[in-house]
Amino acid sequence: MKYSLYIISGLLLLFTSCENLLDITPKSEIAAEELFEDVEGFEDAMYGIYSQMQEDFLYGRFFQVVPDVLAQYYEYGGEYEKFMSYEYSSDANVQMQMNKAWTDAYTLLGQVNSLLDNADKDFDDINYDLVRGEALGVRAFIHFDLLRLFAVDIRSNSDLKSRAIPYAENYTLNQIPFYSVEEVYEKVINDLLEAEQLLAYDTEIFADYPRDATSISGEGFLYARETHFNLHAAQATLARVYWMKGDMGKALLYAEKVINSGKFSLVNTTLEMENLVAGRINGIESIWGVYSQRNISSLYLGASSLYVQASVKDMFIAEDTRNDAWFQDAETKVQLKKMVNRDLSNDPLDLPDYPELGLSMLRYPEMLLIAAEALVVSNPEQSRLYFDTLLEARGLSKFADREPVQNVTLEDIKTEYAKELIGEGQNWFSMKRDNRIIDSPIGEVNGDAIYTLPIPYDELSYR
């Protein structure tokens, strides 16, 4: 029997990114037993998983950059140019990148499952519950992003719904079967609900905002919980999953759990806006992020960078604090500086020691927008309150203060979603759930063939 690529790759990599982890040996079962003989071994394994998440073909580049290129944020795609015209099957470089992202994701899922398969110990240690909850959350999070990229939308009428992606639940040499779109949603949600239970201790140890180096309590695995897949990350991911699924009642339930936790707020100054996502895990808005010191300045600020479409830049009026904080002119072009950590470049910011260096995976504004959308018809006043909270923090006039007072529309929310999450790889999925018509280099397009990356050829060949 031939095995899936991620299994073969997974045998070659066992948590090598983490300090004090075992060297790779052919006796992987013995290595795992030694690694997981105490709680500290589980913690080290989890740190290794987070370290892998920030690699180039995972969240360091591919999972954030490619969806934004597909969404036509940029007038030039650089190394991702062929994605702009949706040449999924005809361009060798596009196929290579998709295959690498797929393989790296399932390799990492193999590591996550190795941890979970060994989590049958009876340790009387709260950290043990936290590690297991984090691993389940990360497993769901990665699978969900693979589903959103490589499978049709759950509301599609396509026959492709019956064969979406494999859902890896064990570290095994056996073939992992493909599941339907609905089955993958069910598995993602079940993992997240279990994670939410295991991470309940975060209600006590997750520091209030604004988080800084002096306000963070705890040490070791309990320190800086926003750098771990924490309780609020589980709830925020559930809100995102239900939002994508179209179950707005449950999306609202989980978005409001995050909102009502009182652990997050919004920044409102230009310097804070510059610092918000620029290689940082923000102590006010970030729900979860992974530590990283990656320098991606050449991607956004280089001579052949991802120049922003004029129509995208035009969405940001002068009063919007994001306008100056996130964009800069480069002769006749506009560059996106939002994602670039200038502490690691030639244009450093004068920033405090905290927040942490890293990639923001989930941010508070998304929860406000999900809640606003869920209530836009049933409770327009509360919808406007959530929406205005974001507008006011970004220097814009609240709908409640306008003459006459305005109600929020779905189009208002979608526009704000596209603005707020530029560079973070999320708006593509808002477009996908609406099957929105896209103005692209090949004309106006939409449909499953555009919004769904094909399963890599190598995965199908080697099964």
UniProtKB/TrEMBL annotation:
<dbReference type="InterPro" id="IPR011990">
    <property type="entry name" value="TPR-like_helical_dom_sf"/>
</dbReference>
<dbReference type="Pfam" id="PF07980">
    <property type="entry name" value="SusD_RagB"/>
</dbReference>
<keyword id="KW-0998">Cell outer membrane</keyword>
<dbReference type="InterPro" id="IPR012944">
    <property type="entry name" value="SusD_RagB_dom"/>
</dbReference>
<comment type="similarity">
    <text>Belongs to the SusD family.</text>
</comment>
<protein>
    <submittedName>
        <fullName>RagB/SusD family nutrient uptake outer membrane protein</fullName>
    </submittedName>
</protein>
<keyword id="KW-0472">Membrane</keyword>
<dbReference type="Pfam" id="PF14322">
    <property type="entry name" value="SusD-like_3"/>
</dbReference>
<keyword id="KW-0732">Signal</keyword>
<feature type="domain" description="RagB/SusD">
    <location>
        <begin position="328"/>
        <end position="433"/>
    </location>
</feature>
<dbReference type="InterPro" id="IPR033985">
    <property type="entry name" value="SusD-like_N"/>
</dbReference>
<feature type="domain" description="SusD-like N-terminal">
    <location>
        <begin position="80"/>
        <end position="204"/>
    </location>
</feature>
